[in-house]
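I had to read the description of the data format several times before I understood it. For illustration, here is how one protein appears when written out as sequence plus structure tokens:
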Amino acid sequence: MLFRRPVKPPAAEGAFIRFESVGLRYGLGPEVLHDISFSLEPGEFRYIVGPSGAGKTSLLRLLYLAHRPTRGLIGVFGHEIATASRADLAGLRRRIGVVFQDFRLLDHLTAHENVALPLRIAGANEAEAREHVTEILTWVGLADHMHARPATLSGGQKQRVAIARAVITRPDLLVADEPTGNLDDTLGFRLMHLFEELNRVGTTVLIATHSETLIAHNPHPAMRLSAGMLDVPGSLAA
């Protein structure tokens, strides 16, 4: 069974993701996010939806600590990002799994080695890493491509490697940017089941998606972005 053994202690209880009047701009350009306020509790599952250019990817970058906000406050796992040290930020990032739109696989590593990397950083021994990586790559349909390098994989196969790498450590927070965008519906639904299994064992999941079909088959509350502003969270489920 996937995720039967965590590789670290569970997250502390309480509201561990908090945005208060957050704004973001790149350089001297205009703000791309305006007055974003919301919180996430441990174990929530939410979507971020909105048209292209609404700011979904920028919001995710703040969530996985790739950027600090231009203004406002962000709290992650009980830490205020504005005052967190580099060492603190590095530790927080290790508790966040990220699925990028552009995969960001390391070309010189095999699929197995790419997925094993977060486990090795977390200090897992080689036998444990091998077992977990083999299990999850088999589950996502890549048992025959474990030793392939990214250049030999299709877009959908790369996406599955990226998803496996993001969830292998059972992160406290999973952030995914269009995670099923390169997959057919059948495989997309299978991978959504993986996210929901991860959520059931305690991970908070936040997925940015354009797919109404995906949401209809896997209904959860959604936050809607429009022109860099966040509407009141609600549910897209009928």
